[in-house]
Each structure stands twice: as C-alpha cells, then as structure tokens.
Amino acid sequence: MTPDLIDSVLAKGLNDVEPTLARYGYNARAVRTCCTCSLRKSWRFLRGRLPAGRAQEIHHELRAVGIPL
Questions:
Q1: DSSP class of 10
Q2: CA dihedral defined by 19, 68, 39, 11, rounded to 10 degrees?
C-alpha cells in the first residue's frame, strides 16, 4: 500500500459537511428544518460556501439539536 494508491481510491472531501450529514441521513431540507436558515443557505452551508461566521452559527445550531458533526 502506498499513499498514492490510497489517495486514488478514497473519495475527495469524504469528511466534508455534506457527506458527513448524508451518512447520518440529513439533507439540505433537514438542515433547514433544524436551524434558522433558508433552503438556499442550507445548500450553501452543505457545500461550504457560506461566510465563516454564518456557517459556524448553523454548525452550533445543528449540534444543539443533537446532530453530530
């Protein structure tokens, strides 16, 4: 096993927010219902395209309702 082989097999971004929440069964609509944001902002949060401050707020709201991140 070489590091190059491992990198070629593993998916990029495996531990990003969207894949992590998907493994727990949450999508953008579920994120929207769990916190105070619009569907568009929940999509942007999942893809890592929100400003850091707002993303942190949503992250804290999700953890407060018991969603592990």
A1: S
A2: -10
Nearest-5° Cα angle at 7, 22 to 69: 30
Q: How many CA atoms, within 13 angstroms, populate the side-chain half-sphere of residue 8?
A: 5
The one-letter amino acid at 69: L
**How many other CB atoms sit within 10 Å of the CB of residue 16?**
14
The mean pLDDT values, 10 residues at a time, for the chain of 69 residues are 80 82 91 90 92 94 89
User: If you search the block for the tokens 């590091």, which residue do you land on?
Assistant: 3
What would the two tokens of residue 68 be? 């592990």
> Rounded distance, CA 41 to CA 12, Å?
23
**How many other C-beta atoms lie within 10 A of the C-beta of residue 30?**
15
User: Model pTM greater than 0.85?
Assistant: no
